[in-house]
Amino acid sequence: MLNRRTIGDVMTEEVITLRADTPFHEVAALLDANDIGAAPVIDDDGAPIGVVSASDVLRHETGLPDALGQDGDDEHAWGKARAQTAGALMSSPVFTARADWTIPRAARELRTRHVKQLPVVDHNGLLTGIVSRSDLMNTFIRADDEIRDEVERDVLGRILGLAEGTVLVEVEDGAVLLRGQVPGPRLVAVVVALCQGVEGVVAVEAHLGTAPA
Fold this sequence. Notes:
The protein is α/β, with parallel strands linked by helices and 213 residues long. It has 2 domains: 132 residues, Roll (CBS-domain); 67 residues, Histidine-containing Protein, Chain: A (2-Layer Sandwich). The chain contains 9 helices and 9 strands. The strands form 3 sheets. Strands 1-2-3 form a 3-stranded mixed beta sheet. A hairpin with a 5-residue loop joins β5 and β6. The longest helix has 16 residues. The chain is elongated and about 75 Å long. Keywords: CBS domain.
């Protein structure tokens, strides 16, 4: 198996947090000073109980339930617009992730829940980090040298057991070019599929022949 990075590898561990009784002006100041789009609200034990986002702050500043200034009849949204503390302003219940989740699983969760960040909790439900859409996107933007090294080391060497130099690997802007020979024709498709599974690879072009018996 290829080594897959997990949420624990990409999450932010030093998390800016709020308490339920944090006043609104402190909430706004913390988000602005740290240039973040959201912050989890934690209880006395350190477990996340909600999330306050920049859009929640905008609702409060406009005095309207819609951050764009449109009226609405949602009483909960109006309550956020009048909130004076993080507890009244936050969205709850909070959706969380675990550090051992794979990147695709977290991405699916963000999409399903329509959120931009997920607090990360341990097996006790206590906050250990936070992961955002940008954190996940960065996993697909890897240096070409890193991709080449992983293809050579893990795909060709560790998994397939090919001798060094049997297949030459070039990577440009995430596109992998393979040149060389493999023991049999069926192995070509296997090599391509494994390379496509390497994080950061956007395309694979294979010019591979079959080594003589």
